[in-house]
Design goal:
This protein is of the alpha/beta class. The protein is built from eight helices and seven strands; from the N terminus they run βββααβαααβαββαα. The chain has a seven-stranded mixed beta sheet, with helices on both faces. A hairpin with a 4-residue loop joins strand 2 and strand 3. Helix 2 packs across helix 5 and helix 6 runs antiparallel to helix 7. The longest helix is centred in the first third of the chain and has 17 residues. The chain starts with a strand and ends with a helix. The mean pLDDT is 86.
C-alpha cells in the first residue's frame, strides 16, 4: 500500500501542514518572499528572487510537505525521491511575461531568466535542485482531474520501485498543494491514510482550493 506521509499547502490567505495540524494565516504581500526569509527552508534557496510564481508556489508547497513528513534535507544530500506536478494553467503566465518582454525589446531578444520558465516543468526542476531530489521528474497534463492523475502516477512509480518516495501536487493561481508519498513500512509514520484515500478526497473538489479545504476539514476532525 502507498501511504501519505505529509501534506503541505499554501493559498493567498494561509498555509499549513496536515499531519502537524498547522494552519497559519498569511501576511505576505503576494510575492511569497516571507517564506524564503523566515526559515521555512532548511538552507537558503539560491537565486529565489528570479523564480516565477509557479516555481515559488511549488517550492513552498514541497517544503511544507517535507516538513509535515518530518523529512530533512541539505545542500549536500541527494535523495531517491521523485516529483510529479500539474497545473490547470501550465506556464501561461510566464509565457505571456516572456513575450511581453520580447515585444518591448523590439522583437529581437528577451531576458534569459524569463525564458527558462516558459516550460511548465521548470518549477519542478527548481524544486528538485534545491531539495536534492534524484528520482523521476514529470510534469503531467490531463483533460480532467489532473491532481488525481498525478497522485495515481506517483503511486504507480512507487509500486514499480522507481523511487523510495514521491512528491505529487498541483499549482493553480495563488495556490499550491503537495503530498509526500511512500510505500507502507518505509519508515515514515502513517498519519494521513493511503494515497487512494487522498485521491478520493481530492475528487470531491472542483478546484484546487476546494481540495485544500477537504484536507483542512480533516484537521478539524470533520468528514
Amino acid at each position: 500500500m502507498i501511504e501519505v506521509g505529509g501534506i503541505g499547502w499554501v493559498t493567498a490567505r494561509e498555509h499549513g501542514c496536515a499531519a502537524r495540524g498547522e494552519r497559519t494565516g498569511s501576511d505576505d504581500d503576494g510575492s511569497l518572499d516571507r517564506f524564503f526569509r523566515d526559515g521555512l527552508f532548511a538552507y537558503p534557496f539560491k537565486n529565489h528572487g528570479r523564480l516565477d510564481r509557479a516555481s515559488r508556489l511549488t517550492a513552498v508547497g514541497v517544503a511544507l510537505a517535507l516538513r509535515d513528513a518530518g523529512l530533512s534535507y541539505s545542500a549536500e544530500e541527494k535523495q531517491n525521491i521523485g516529483i510529479i506536478g500539474t497545473s490547470d494553467e501550465g506556464s501561461l503566465a510566464s509565457d505571456l511575461l516572456y513575450f511581453k518582454d520580447y515585444a518591448e525589446c523590439g522583437r529581437t531578444l528577451s531576458r534569459a531568466n524569463l525564458f527558462i520558465y516558459t516550460l511548465p516543468s521548470s518549477a519542478l526542476g527548481e524544486a528538485a535542485i534545491h531539495f536534492g531530489l534524484q528520482g523521476p521528474l514529470l510534469y503531467l497534463t490531463a483533460e480532467r482531474a489532473s491532481l488525481q492523475a498525478a497522485l495515481e502516477t506517483a503511486e504507480e512509480m512507487l509500486e514499480l520501485g522507481e523511487a523510495e518516495a514521491m512528491l505529487a501536487g498541483a499549482v493553480n493561481g495563488q495556490e499550491a498543494l503537495y503530498f509526500f508519498l511512500t510505500r507502507a513500512g518505509a519508515g515514515q509514520p502513517n498519519r494521513l491514510g493511503s494515497a487512494r484515500e487522498a485521491r478520493q478526497k481530492a475528487a470531491k473538489g472542483r478546484t484546487l482550493g476546494d481540495v485544500i479545504q477537504q484536507f483542512q476539514r480533516r484537521q478539524k476532525g470533520e468528514s
